C-alpha cells in the first residue's frame, strides 16, 4: 500500500513537470500584437531609485513585487512578460555556494548540472511556501502596505538559464518565473514586450528607465518598498561577455537598492514599452555616491531561453531544439505509462 502511494506521488510530480505552461504559438502571436501597447514612459530624473520618481502602478503596470519568505522576509522586483511569466534576478531564488546552488528560504541544495550537457536549473514543487508574487501594487512589502490592493499569485516553476556553465557564473543572474495561474490583464496588470536584439542598446541617445521596489535604509525595517523609477543609459562595461551590461543614471547618482534586484530596465522600441535588461547588482544605498553604475542582465542574450521555456519568441527554435523538447516529452510519457501500469498491478 505504501509503495502504491509513493508511485502515485511520483506520478503526480511527473505530471506536474510535464504540463508546462509555456505560451502556444497562437498565444505568442496575440502577445506580440498587444505587448507594451498604449503604455508610455514618463520622463524625469531623481536622485536614484531610492529617492527617484515615485511611480504609480498604473503608469508602470508591468512591475511585480516578489516576497521571499525568509526569516526577515526578502524583497525583489520582477517584470511581467506574459499573462503567466515574469523575468527577474536569479539571486532572488538561489545563491551559488562552493558545493552548488542553494535555494533561498529552505537553504537546500538544488540538484542539477551533474551531466555535461546540462545548461539550466529548473525548480519545481511547492514554491509558493517560499516565494509569493504581488501584482497591481505600488508597494513592495505587504505588511507595510495598508489600504493598498494587490493580486497575489503563486509560483509553479523557476528557470535559471545557463547557470551550469561554470566559466561565467558571475554573469548568469537571470531567472524566468512561471506563475501558478494566468493573470487577468487590467490597467494595473500589463505585460510588456521582450527585447530580442541588442544592436542598438548602446546608442548614445538611447534613454531607458529602471524600476524597482527598493527600500529606504533610513526607514529601517519600516520601509514599505515603494515603486520608483530612474532614467538611465546603457554602457558597455564587460569585454568578456554579452550576458550583461551596465546602466548609469542621467543624474549621475546611484541607483538600485535592496528590493530593486530583478527590476526591469525598459525603453520604447517601435512605440512599445520593451524590457531590455534585469538589474542584478548595484552599489550600496547606505552611502551617498555619485557617478556609479548598476549591473544588468542583457535580456536579448537570454531570448532563446525565454522562447524555449516561456514560448515568448521572436523566431521559433530550429528543428534540433524542437526534437530535443519532443525527446524529453517522450521520455516523460514513457515513464508515466509504465508507472500507471505498475500501480495497477500492485
UniProtKB/TrEMBL annotation:
- Report whether Cell membrane shows up as a keyword of the record: no
The positions making up the signal sequence are 1-20
Mind listing the UniProt keywords for this protein, alphabetically?
Signal
Q: Which SMART domains match?
A: Tryp_SPc (SM00020)
Q: Does the keyword field hold Signal?
A: yes
Q: Which domain of life is it from?
A: Eukaryota
One MF annotation (Gene Ontology) recorded for this entry: serine-type endopeptidase activity
Q: PROSITE patterns per the record?
A: TRYPSIN_DOM (PS50240)
Q: Locate the Peptidase S1 domain: which residues? A: 49-311
GO terms for biological process, alphabetical: proteolysis
Which Pfam families does the UniProt record give? Answer: DUF316 (PF03761)
Q: Which PANTHER family match?
A: PEPTIDASE S1 DOMAIN-CONTAINING PROTEIN (PTHR22596:SF7), TRYPSIN-LIKE PROTEASE PROTEIN 6 (PTHR22596)
Record protein name field: Peptidase S1 domain-containing protein
Can you name the source organism?
A: Caenorhabditis elegans
Task: Tell me the gene name.
Answer: try-15
